[in-house]
Amino acid sequence: MAEFRIPERRARLLEYARSLTPPSGWKVEVSGDEIIMTAGPSVVHRRNLLLVRERFDAHRPAGMMPSENTDLASPNVGKLRNPDLTYIPVSAVELGGNDVPAEPAAVAVEIVSPSNPENDLIGKVRGYPLMHIPLYLLIDPRDGAIVLYPAPAAGVHRRRWSGSFGDLVPIPAPFAFDLATGDLVRDPL
User: Fold this and answer.
1) Rounded to an integer, what is the distance from CA 118 to the centroid of its chain?
2) What pTM was computed for the model?
3) Which of 52, 72, 74, 127 has its CA 20 to 30 A from that of 36?
4) C-alpha count within 13 angstroms, C-beta hemisphere, residue 16
């Protein structure tokens, strides 16, 4: 893996973001030159996440554990992201602390936040491939859209699968299953 150097200003921003103690139910992320704080999710968000997690759990690779709202850090690219759901190596627990290196994460799952959709739809589409996360599953309850970005290369997504609630989403290895989405719920907000 190539070694990337980030500007000192971004390194300080990442360090500052890690030092913040957000109110209960809030999360902190770094995207480019911004620190983004978002409020806790709605009940619809939580239900959709539960359904998706149960399906991923049934296909969980050995040695990986699910983790919700875990800080994935990639200091080489100056990013700190907090996906709704990820699967990280069980060995990451040995590192302790609040954040985990992003590179060994197997997937990032995001349910689009109605309060800040641009963060999920733009910032994370750019950020996750730079962080070497191999799968990004984006679920948008506002319009019932689903997008899967598999196998990033050279820091960008070269492919994408798009569908709607009700479609089977072809989740590739290491999970290797078709994600049923017929019972996901649209958010009336």
Assistant:
1) 14
2) 0.79
3) 52
4) 11
Domain boundaries 8-180, corresponding CATH code? 3.90.1570.10
Q: Are 75 and 14 in contact (CB under 8 A)?
A: yes
- Could you report the per-residue pLDDT of 40-70, keeping only the tens digit for each? 678 899 999 999 999 999 999 999 999 998 8
Reduced 3-state DSSP string for the chain: CCCCCCCHHHHHHHHHHHHCCCCCCCEEEEECCEEEEECCCCHHHHHHHHHHHHHHHCCCCCCEEEECCCEEEECCCCEEECCCEEEEEHHHHHHCCCEEECCCCCCEEEECCCCCHHHHHHHHHHHHHHCCCCEEEEEECCCCEEEEEECCECCECCCCEEEECCCEEEECCCCCEEEECCCCCCCCC
Whether 167 and 150 have beta carbons less than 8 Å apart is answered as no
What are the structure tokens assigned to 26, written together?
């809030």
Q: Are 189 and 114 in contact (CB under 8 A)?
A: yes
Q: Provide the CA 178 distance to its chain's centre, in angstroms.
A: 19
Residue pair 70/86 in contact by the 8 Å Cβ criterion: yes
pLDDT tens digit sequence for 104-151: 999 999 999 887 888 889 989 999 999 999 999 999 999 999 999 998
Spans of all domains in the chain: 8-180
Could you tell me which residues come within 8 angstroms of residue 83 by beta carbon, excluding any fewer than 6 positions away?
Answer: 69, 70, 72, 108, 109, 110, 124
